[in-house]
What does this fold into?
Amino acid sequence: MKIAVHFYSYYKDLTGSAETTETLPPGSTIADLLKQLMARFPELGAMQNSTLVAVGVDYQGRGYLLKEGDEVSLFPPVQGG
Amino acid sequence: MRYRSSRRCKAADRIHDLRFAIYDLCANALLAPHFTRRAVVKRQLTITLEPIDEAALASKRRMSDGMGAVVYFAGVVRAAEENRAIHAIEYEAFQQMAEHQFNLLFSEMEKRWPIESVRLVHRIGMVKVNEPSLWVEVVAPHRGEAFAACQWLIDELKRVVPIWKKPFA
It folds into this structure.
């Protein structure tokens, strides 16, 4: 299945792009997606534990079961205000 | 036959009355204050590239007679970030998610405090030193709940709303 991934804040600089697409086998979780992304973008590796993940407009944990068409966003801790 | 029909009508009426009695009891005891509170809470959320006009925001304040407290807060860009002199901060938002998360926070505020209104403006794009990047206003019957709700909202937005800053020296 294909999963669209969006990067925000300095993650765009680290990956050199604002978005990408990853192909994963059915039954994959966010943890699987992150593992694949870290292999492709090693610069994200150092932020593995602090990375926040959203599917659509809601936060999701590493165990979230991905499905075809999910829009995943990865970003560092937020800093509004 | 007529007697039976009449008995059925009376029984139906009693059930009907009972239903309304239960409804009234629930509404008065539990539901009515909740619905009343939700119905009157006004929300205004703006995420904008434009400068925050505090005077214009203040002039548009609306409060009902029962409200006794207005707490507002302006977050202003400082001239230093992590001990480094800067002249501006660029704010970036994941706008759709930010709006959703703000609305979740507003809903939680409404459950926790009897507020009448909440207005929040967050700037994105380049914000110069001494300019406000955030403006929040909470209107409530008493100062305690207004201060608490405003403080809580700001703390939570810094935890969950997807907005980031990039300082420029």
User: Anything to note?
Assistant: Chain A has a mean pLDDT of 96. The CA atoms of residues 37 and 44 of chain A lie 8 Å apart. The beta strands of chain A are 2-7, 19-23, 52-55, 58-59, 71-75. Helices of chain A lie at 11-15, 30-40.
